[in-house]
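Subject: design request, 259 residues
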């Protein structure tokens, strides 16, 4: 399978999948506080997804046992929600979720502070979020795929943070993972040319310390080797003739839509 160009009808369905996912994240964000479990967050996410008649795309994906990936502190991605994993003041928590609306996917992640956190950890969250926007600025027809990768890497590394290598963003559409892979660091070459109608899940995973990771014995949870904190931020993005359209972001959070 190669990269797919979506029709106007497919784009409409993906817009709706993205709009719903933005709400799912907003609702999950509201319950984040010390004392709740990572399973509470999963339950809220799944409830909101199903309230729109959508399917949580992660549930049973390659055997993943939940609807939301909930990754705390040194967990980079793919943390499995548990009722005995209780959030504490000073933690950071990354939430990653996907929905299927009428056969089309959206995929997005946010990292939240739990109560008061260290200033440096605030910085990690903010730089990770901004690195996504630096990448998206390059997500224009005529540019090349790795222009996005380079922008993310240059921005994150300019703050002394590091970019995870093993996991990458991806095309998205009628499947959660489509071609192309989108590294958050610049490989050799420029990558393919971007064309209107491509839909991409761009998802920087940024570590406070070193870039190396491990996968735990549960075969899912990805953690930093040096146990320092890691943040994740992701949206589903449409390449257009003009500015990129961020499908999984509410207008109020979208710098491209601010006057
Ligand atoms: N959001 C992840 C990604 O972009 C998907 C999580 S994998 C799952 O690749 F198994 F948890 F679904
Ligand atoms: Co993704």
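Subject: RE: design request

Done. Sequence follows.
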């Amino acid at each position: 399978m190669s990269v797919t160009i979506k029709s106007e009808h497919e784009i409409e369905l993906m817009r709706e999948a993205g709009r719903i996912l933005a709400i799912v994240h907003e609702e999950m964000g509201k319950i984040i506080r010390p004392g709740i479990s990572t399973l509470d967050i999963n339950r809220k996410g799944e409830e909101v997804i199903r309230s729109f008649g959508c399917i949580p795309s992660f549930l049973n994906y390659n055997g993943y046992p939940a609807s939301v990936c909930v990754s705390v502190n040194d967990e980079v991605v793919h943390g499995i929600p548990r009722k005995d994993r209780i959030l504490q003041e000073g933690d950071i928590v990354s939430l990653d979720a996907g929905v299927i609306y009428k056969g089309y996917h959206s995929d997005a992640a946010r990292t939240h502070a739990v109560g008061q956190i260290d200033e440096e950890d605030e910085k990690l969250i903010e730089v990770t979020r901004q690195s996504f926007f630096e990448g998206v600025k390059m997500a224009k027809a005529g540019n090349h795929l790795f222009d996005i990768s380079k922008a993310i890497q240059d921005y994150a590394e300019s703050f002394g943070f590091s970019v995870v290598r093993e996991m990458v963003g991806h095309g998205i559409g009628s499947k959660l993972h489509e071609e192309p892979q989108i590294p958050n660091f610049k490989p050799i070459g420029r990558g393919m040319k971007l064309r209107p109608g491509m839909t991409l899940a761009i998802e920087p995973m940024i570590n406070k310390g070193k870039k190396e990771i491990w996968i735990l014995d549960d075969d899912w949870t990805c953690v930093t080797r040096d146990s320092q904190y890691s943040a994740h931020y992701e949206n589903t993005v449409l390449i257009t003739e003009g500015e990129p359209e961020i499908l999984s972001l509410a207008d109020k959070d979208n710098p491209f839509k601010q006057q």
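The first helix runs from residue 8 to 30.
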